[in-house]
């Protein structure tokens, strides 16, 4: 098995950037989903913007240019690709290219509280010039926020070892009471907390991994053409795509661990299935549901891929994963917890589950999503 594709999405919900090599961190591919867009409602509450509810996000392409060593550093260039027919009236800003710092200077940015899937974070507003560009392209007030030093909690038992931690909750509560009187133990408890898994604006885990073999599933083959064999995988929005013709379609449902032999034997721990939504039906050139059968891709998967009781009404494609980097001899993490990978690197399935895992992140109901954050 080898890595077929690597994708990063610096601004969540926009088109991916295809990479030939990437730095893997505990929070995902470096710079993945550190930015996010929110619609400002008339009552000043915020609504998270994702492809499922705002398919026009697919009209924005993004690329990373520059170098960390250059003046100004690396930038994300964002372009709005006006569809035919256009979705909204023309605005001059729609013809411009927006430059967004890959790593912004956060010293003067205003804080803002946001929420994604019931996991909140204290983020930072990028400012009026960025908001004006996206507002002109969407046709309604929109703000761009950066995760800054914010950390979103991993909910349910998706984080590695979360089930065992929940079982120890009662004893941990007693330990917390004791540490409140013992400063040295209290400090240790804080350190352990800081090492727990956390997220940027990735949905439920730092990585989404898919298998190219699953595209050969009979119900998916009609959606593929010789000139665009992988455009369906593009809609799955994975970070890492692996390929191995010996793996059956959806064998990844049972993968528990992938090893990366070329990267100091780092491992990807796969903990949950990814339930799919209407983003699969989006035409990236039109910014709306695709015409014809392709606009029914979600329905096609619904027929026989509703295999996870935790995703009662959603079909499954792909697995959420977390990075585990082995300790080196001095006890520290190799590369401060990061590893380098390239397209073509070897991957080994080193552990499989006997049964499918059950997704248990309690995502808020749709009615609550309209006001998940307050400015």
TrEMBL record:
MOSC domain segment(s): 182-350
One of the record's GO molecular function terms: pyridoxal phosphate binding
SUPFAM superfamilies: MOSC N-terminal domain-like
Name of the protein described by the UniProt record: MOSC domain-containing protein
Naturally occurring in which organism (per UniProt): Colletotrichum salicis
């Amino acid at each position: 098995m080898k890595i077929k594709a690597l994708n990063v999405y610096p601004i969540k919900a926009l088109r991916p950037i295809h990479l030939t090599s990437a730095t893997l961190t505990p929070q995902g591919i470096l710079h993945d989903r550190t930015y996010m867009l929110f619609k400002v409602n008339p009552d000043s509450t915020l609504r998270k913007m994702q492809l499922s509810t705002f398919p026009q996000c697919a009209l924005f392409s993004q690329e990373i240019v520059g170098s960390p060593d250059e003046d100004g550093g690396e930038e994300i260039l964002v372009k709005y690709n006006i569809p035919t027919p256009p979705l909204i009236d023309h605005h001059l800003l729609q013809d411009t290219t927006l430059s967004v710092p890959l790593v912004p200077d956060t010293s003067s940015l205003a804080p803002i509280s946001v929420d994604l899937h019931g996991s909140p974070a204290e983020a930072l507003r990028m400012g009026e010039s960025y908001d004006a560009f996206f507002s002109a392209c969407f046709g309604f007030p929109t703000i761009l926020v950066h995760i800054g030093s914010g950390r979103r909690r991993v909910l349910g038992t998706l984080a590695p070892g979360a089930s065992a931690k929940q079982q120890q909750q009662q004893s941990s509560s007693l330990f917390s009471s004791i540490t409140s009187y013992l400063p040295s133990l209290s400090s240790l408890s804080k350190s352990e907390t800081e090492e727990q898994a956390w997220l940027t604006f990735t949905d439920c885990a730092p990585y989404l991994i898919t298998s190219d073999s699953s595209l050969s599933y009979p119900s998916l083959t009609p959606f593929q053409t010789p000139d665009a064999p992988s455009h369906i995988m593009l809609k799955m929005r994975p970070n890492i795509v692996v390929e191995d013709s010996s793996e059956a379609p959806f064998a990844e449902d049972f993968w528990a661990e992938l090893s990366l032999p070329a990267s100091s034997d780092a491992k990807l721990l796969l903990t949950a299935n990814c339930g799919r939504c209407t983003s699969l039906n989006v035409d990236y050139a039109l910014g709306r549901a695709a015409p014809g059968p392709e606009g029914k891709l979600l329905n096609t998967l619904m027929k026989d891929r509703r295999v996870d009781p935790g995703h009662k009404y959603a079909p499954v494609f792909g697995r959420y994963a977390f990075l585990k980097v082995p300790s080196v001899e001095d006890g520290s993490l190799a590369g401060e917890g990061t590893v380098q990978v390239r397209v073509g690197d070897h991957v080994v399935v080193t552990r499989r589950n006997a049964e499918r895992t059950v997704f248990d992140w309690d995502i808020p109901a749709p009615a609550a999503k309209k006001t998940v954050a307050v400015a």
